[in-house]
Amino acid sequence: MKTSNLKSMLGPFLIGLLLLGCNEAPKETNSGDPSGSIATSKEQGQAFIENDESTPTVLSIAINSPDHTTLVAAVQAADLENALVNAGPLMVFAPTNEAFDALPAGTVENLLKPENKDALANILKHHVTPGKYDKAFLKNFKKLGQANDQNTTVEVKGDDVYVGGAKILASVPAGNGIVHVVDKVILPPNQ
Amino acid sequence: MAFHLGRLFKEIPVFSQFPTSGYGYSEETKPMLNTSFGFVPWDDAHHPDISRTNGELDGRWIFINGNNTPRIARVSLSTFETEEIIELPNSAGNHSSSFITENTEYVVAGTRFSVPVPQRDMPINEYKGNFKGALSFISIAPDTGRLNLDFQMMMPGFNYDLSHPGRGKSHGWFFFTTYNTEEANSLMEVNSSQNDKDFIAAVNWKMIAEYVKNGGGTKMATEYAHNVYDEHTHSATSTMKKEVITVDPTKVPGAVFFLPTPKSPHGCDVDPSGQYIIGNGKLSADLTIHSFDKMIAAIEGKKFDGEAYGIPILRFEDVLAGTVKSGGLGPLHTEFDDKGNAYTTFFISSEVVKWKLGTWEVLDRQPTFYSVGHLMIPGGNSRKPFGKYVVAMNKITKDRYLPTGPEMEHSAQIYDISGDKMELIYDFPTHGEPHYAAGCPADLLAPKSKKIYRLDDNKHPYAVTSPDQAKVVREGNEVHVYMSTIRSHFTPDNIEGIKVGDKVYFHITNHEQDFDVPHGFAMIGQNTSELLIMPGQTKTSVWEPKKVGVSAVLLYGFLFSATPRNARLCEGLPGRFKCSLNLFLRRIVYKI
C-alpha cells in the first residue's frame, strides 16, 4: 500500500522544480488523535502528519523527486522517515537513482532485505550531517561528521564540491535543512 | 516552574512576574527580580533539582537556574514559594546548572559561554586563551538553605554545557560536558566541531573548597544581586554583592582533569552508584560511558595525554567503560531506574532508549511525540531512583492535540517503566516548552506542606494583626493604608482625602486562619497587578491615582456574599480625590 501510494505521488518533476512539487505532502498520514491517544504503530510520528502549509522537509523533497525513488524506498525500509522530518537542521546528501544503479549488481536489493536493515540504516545515516550548509559554505570544511558517527571528506575541485567522493549536482533548501543531490552513493569507510 | 504530572497543582513564579499572585508586582516581591542589570522580570528556567541527604531526595527545597540573566533560585517545598535568587557574575548563559551535591553542600552552576573575566571590551579574535568559563559553587546553609557564592573556578574558555555531581563513591567530584574546545570565534559550525573529541571536565570540588577555606583563591571585584525572601516578614530584600573569590584550577594540582569524550557531548549524567559518567554526544549516535574507578586509576598512575591550559588530559581508552551502540540519532540526556537500567532521549530520532548499565545492550525503545529533550524519572539523577515512571519532555507537538494556531503548548509523555518494555500510558500538553523536571514521591512533600501563615508570627512592618489597628497614615504625598481583610469585609472600608499625585500603599493583611481562604485586591487603573494574599500574610500594592473620581476596590477570593457595601458616590472636587471602597464580588472560587 505504501509503495503504490508513493508511485501515485511521483509526478514527472525535474529536480529544479522540486519545490513546486513539494506541496504534495505524503498522503499516508496517520495524524495523532486529538484526544491524545497513546496507540502506536509503525507509521506514526512527525513524518506522517498531514501538512500542506509548511515548507517541505528534506524527506518530502526526496519523496517528491522522481530521481530519488531508490533512496526513498531505502529510507522507508530503514524506518528513518521520522528522523528526516526532525526540526534539525539536517543536511542530506541524496544519491540519485542512477547513483544507486551504479553500485554492483544486487547491492541495493540485498540492502533492502529486512535482515540487512541495520547495515542499510548505517549507510543512509552516512549521508546525513547535523547542520545546514549551502554548497558555497561547504567549501570551508575539510571533513564532516556524519550521523552514523563516522567522518566523510569534503573536497573542492574548481567550482565543484565533492563530499565523500560524490559530486554535488544540485541543492534544494528545505524547511528543516537542505538536500544536496549527489552523483554517487557515499559508502562509509571501513570501521 | 509548574508542579504537575498531567494535572497542574501549582505554577510557581521564580524569575518571572506573575499577576495571579502579584509576585514581582507587590512591593514585597519586586526585590526578588533585581539584578546588577536592574529589574529583570523574566528568564529562561531550565533545570530544577531537589535537595538531597546522602544522595537521596529529601524534599526540603527545589533549585532552578535562570539561563539568560544568570541566576539560581531556591524554592521552599513547604510554602512552594521562591525564597531566594542569587545572580552569577562572570557568566553568559547559565546552562550547566542547577545541580545539587550529595548532601546539598553546593548548588553548582556552569556558564555555557565563556567571556572575558573581568568583563571588558575585547576583539572577538582574541577569544582563544583569553576568555574564561566560570564554574560557580554556591554553598547552601544546612538549616536555612541560605545561598552564598563560595567560589568560582575560572576554567579554559570552552562551552560548559551540562553537569552532574558524583554520588556514592564519586561524591566530592563534579562532571561538566564541554564543547567548542577549539575556542572558535568565527564560522562556528566549521570551526567548533573540528576536534573528534571534546572533554568532560572532572572537578574535585571538595579539594577546591578546602583550598578556598584555607585562604586560597583570589578576591575579585564584581557586582551581583542576592535577593532573599523572608517567610515571617513576607518581604524580600535585595543586596548588591561586590566581590567573588575566583580559583585558577592550575593552582590546585590534582583537582581538575579532562576526559576526552566524542562529538560535542551535551548531557552529562552519573548513574546511581556513582561509577559511570555518561556523555551524550549530540552529533553522535553512540553514548560514551566513562568509569570513575578507571579515571581514579589513570590519575593515580599519572597516565596523561598532554594537557590543556595546564589541566591534564586523561587518555580516552584509559577511562572508557563502554559504548552504547544505540541505533538512535541525537542523544541528549540519560536518567536511571533502580534496577540497573538507563534511559536516554534521542532528539533527532524522537525516542527514549532503555539500555543496561554494564553490558551496554539496548533493551527497548519507544517513540516520543515529538523530538524529545530531557526525560525525568523521580530521583533518576540521585542515589535512589523511584523507577516506576519516566516522563519525556518534547520540544515539538504538531498534531498531538486539538490545534490552537501557530503557538501551542508542548507535549510531555509518561511511560510506565516497571516492566521489561516501556509503555506509554499518558500524554498531556504542558505550559511552554517543558524543559526539564524533577520528581519525587508525594509523601515526601505532602505531610509538610504549609496550610496557612500564622498571623501571630507575621513580622511584616505594615501588618495589622487585629482590625482595630487598621489606619491611614499620610507622610507627605505618600499614603499608607494599613488594611485587614476577613470574610467578607475589610477595614478600613472607606478612605477619603486621597489626591491626584499621591502614592498610595495598600498594605493588606489577610486575617483568615483557615486553609485555602485567600483574599484578592486590586484598584481600577492600577499600573500593576492584583494581589492574592494567603491567610496570615501581608502584601502591599502601590496605586498612583491619575484621575479625579470615586474608585472601586476589587476584593475577591473566597466570598459567598456579594452585596455591594458602601457603594457611596462621592463628589469629585477639582484637584482632589475621594475614594470610596466598594466591595463586590468579582470572582467566586469554585472548589472542584
UniProtKB/TrEMBL annotation, chain A:
Gene3D superfamilies: FAS1 domain
InterPro entries xrefs: Adhesion/Biosynth-related, FAS1_dom_sf, FAS1_domain
Domain spans labelled FAS1: 55-186
Coiled-coil portions: none
PROSITE patterns: FAS1 (PS50213), PROKAR_LIPOPROTEIN (PS51257)
An annotated GO cellular component: extracellular space
Protein name, per record: Fasciclin domain-containing protein
Organism whose genome encodes this protein: Maribacter aurantiacus
Record lineage: Bacteria, Pseudomonadati, Bacteroidota, Flavobacteriia, Flavobacteriales
